[in-house]
Amino acid sequence: MPDLPEWPAPPRPAELTYTRLVKAILDRTFPANGSLPAERQLAERLGVTRSTLREALQRLAAEGWIDIQQGKPTRVKDVWTEGNLNVLAALVSRQSALPPTFVPQLLEVREALAPAYTAAAVRHNAGEVAAMIGRLLADLNDSPDSFASADWTLHHQLTVLSTNPVYTLILNGFVGFYQRMARRYFSLPESRASSRQFYLDLRAAAASEDPDAARAITAAVMCHSIDLWNRVSKGEGSLSPAPGIR
Hints:
By secondary structure, the protein is mainly alpha-helical. The chain contains eleven helices and two strands; from the N terminus they run αααββαααααααα. Helix content is about 65%, strand content about 0%.
């Protein structure tokens, strides 16, 4: 008898129900500030038991998708004004639900955060920052994939070395999305050249144990990356098939 492949276990009914409801909220089948159907009707439409539906609804409520109040219809929250990091993680995994302004807005957030966690990393762990960048530069080649991988590693490790785990938790919510965006961003040769110089300058600042220089260097390149992204998104440079950040 031939060996069978290791097939993944099918999703649990509550997991499948949760996924279907998230999709329905994002595609506006259940629009923001509207109400979900009554439990009996919704369970019938989804083909699940009411106990399975309740399990999924409790998860949606805990993650910030819906508001459950005893004796009232279940309200769908406006995820763009009432959502949280759980909702954000789900949004970035479903790119079709994102508005065109999302990536530039995300880059603006990174422009605010990256100088702070980079300066903190150099302040607390300058030697490790310099050594980490040296390893990245040694392995770096002039391809979008290589730069996308290096850039994720750099920023992830900077958040870790900053000694503030909240930065790392925020960044981790974007891991797959970040790297898809990065491959597109780094399709532009100027983006690769800009980042290579950034890595060299940041390594020098870390070697000098100068967090203020690290902050200024990072702020400048984060600002420049927004301009470069705008060029990429307008079709300048050779774009890779995967959509994507720096």
